[in-house]
Amino acid sequence: MSATATRVAAVDCGTNSIRLLIHDTATGEVTRENTIVRLGQGVDESGRFHPDAIERTRKALAAYVDTMEREGVSKVRMVATSATRDASNREDFLAMTCDLLGRIQPGAQAEVITGEEEAALSFAGATADIDPARGPFCVIDLGGGSTEFVMDGHAVSTRMGCVRVTERFMCTDPPTEEETSAARAYIRERIAEAAAEVPFAQAQTFVGCAGTFTTIAAIAQHLPTYDPERIHMLEISFERMREVTTDLRLKTAAQRLEDPVMHPGRADVIGSGSTVVEELMVAFADAAGASSFIISEKDILDGIVAKLVAQ
Fold it and tell me: Could you list the residue ranges that cross the membrane (predicted)?
């Protein structure tokens, strides 16, 4: 690291995973990590974090802080999204993050951001590497507890994510037709809420980010291992997406795990995530005549880093 370079870190803690991005202002990305912790375990039903979920998240964050120290990070921002917005005992979680992040930057702790800020940060990251001529863009960040939709000047966060839909509707392995039908009705309602605020018909390019989209893209290419470089900026047709999502939805979690790109912590919820993607494709085809997604490996973490560097 040069004498003038600065290293910053972004941490995103969602319903299903906690992720880290370390960026060097001189050389760019240093490391990017993802750990499935299922912080949102049972939050949709109980309204509280489970102690085991907080402990899983603490261990993962402690490992990230160790990495930050080794890499000489001087500034960190951690955001917490859907599950933390919903949890009544969020203060226990925030205190834990303060203890750990204070090792890097005194006073730092996780920030509970709004769905609208989450959407704006995701948009900045997801569109960073796309030719502006392909705009207007509509970015869809499909998470564990929520899904954000964002276009320039428009952003909405919906209570629809792969963990939430699994726990609420698609809890059989594999889900039954009745469960899937109920989930689809709920998903369509959430998409309609988004469509009332975000002008899908004006979008030229639809961009999907986060783990459901990137995993589907990996499977669609029959990758032998998860390769972000093969996934980032892949344009994939709705037809091919639907082949993959249908197959995933009908399989058991154990069968999904037979694919080498499937993360063990995603296998039990990607059937629900696939159902969300299927309904998104119907909505975007109807509204804008869309027939493909661009898949982005960049997302909210990259948006956070861009703001840290600008500061």
Answer: none
